Amino acid sequence: MRPIRLARRPSRLAALAPQGDGVEAFGISFRVKTHYVNPVNTPQIILIAGPTASGKSALALAVAEKSGGTIINADSMQVYRDLRIITARPTPDEERRVPHRLYGHVDSAENYSVGRWRDEVAAVLAECGRDRRPAIFVGGTGLYFKTLTRGLAAVPPIPPEIRRHVRARLAADGVAPLHAELAARDPAAAARLKPGDRARVTRALEVVLATGRSIIDWHEDNKPATVDLARAAKIFLMPNRAELSRRIDTRFDAMMAAGALDEVRALAARKLDPNLPAMKAHGVPWLIRHLSGEISLAAAVEHAKLETRQYTKRQATWFRNQLPEFAWVAPADAQAATEAQLRAVSSCPA
Best label site of 46, 135, 149, 307, fewest CB within 10 Å? Predict the structure, then answer.
């Protein structure tokens, strides 16, 4: 195999699944039924994960150019079309060099879910299979990778009117009344959640109101994994902490120079629900606070950088605990590690 050339990438902005084991989802521990990997006709699966600003996209692009692969987004914020700059989506030039899928195809007014991502991935994998292209997943959203390789609870979509009603109550009265109602309607779920956990209490209440079933029961009826982890190359790219912090600062400065503030200004002008995922993308809330006159631009930038650094620590901890099968590698070793994984997977009998 010819070596993959990983030249230093200029700023893109400036120029085996558990079978019947106990798992945790949404903060609730439960036992899942045995499930099997869906058969997907793809020549090769490559999973590239890592914290924000670790160099994942550069590695994915190099692998895709060498192998003729398709890059598939596994970052929950890069799906939003309004947020190309602030989420460091691939540039138009990069998207022309190799096929990219599931980037910038969702409006920020939508509450995009991991379930929808999973369904869209299935269609992309079928396309890769037809075209005989390796499928290269890249991103930092751990839940996407876990859903891909472990499966997903089969919770149906929540009707918008129920979601709006519960979220309005949360905004007006706080989480305590919601937890009290959850305890009355679904005592098992309420007992397993912290009363102050706004996101999980809200979600559990929405589920029981919409379906009449506990979120725990839905998790037990989980959908099967899409990818067989044992037959996929899997890399977690991790610079040392000082280098990662430097990359985060450099990247955010580049985003600002490329027009991130104007991008966020346009988003803020839409006056969307601040609880929507797109409105919580790293940097967006701080820049909106600056635009509303609450803080200086310098303060907004520094808070956004700090928030991102803190998030990368949580990303690393999550992957280490939830997906230990991934090989952790430093950027300097990424080429050799990726090639070794590809050789190992290719040599496995079908």
Answer: 307
